[in-house]
Amino acid sequence: MQPYELSLAAAADAIRARTLSPVELVDSVLDRVEKVEPSLGAYATVTAEEARRSAREAEHDIAAGHGPHGSLHGVPMGLKDLIDVAGTATTAGSRVRAAHRAEADSTVAARLTAAGAILVGKTHTHEFAYGLTTPQTKNAWDRDRVAGGSAGGSAVAVAAGAATFALGTDTGGSIRVPAALNGVVGLKPTYGLVPRHGVTSLSWSLDHVGPITRTVEDAALVLTALAGHDPRDPASLATAVTDYRPGADTDLTGLRVGVPRNYYFDHVAPEIETAVRHAIGHLESLGARLVEVEIPMTRYIQATHWGLMVPEATAYHERTLRTVPELYQADVRVLLEAGELMPAGDHLRAQRARTLMRQDWARLLKEADVIAAPTVPATAVPSGQSTLTWPDGTVEGVSDAYVRLSAPANITGVPSLSVPVGHDTDGLPIGMQLLGRPFGEPVLLRVGHAYERTRPARPVATV
Question: Any catalytic annotation for residue 28?
Answer without folding.
Answer: no
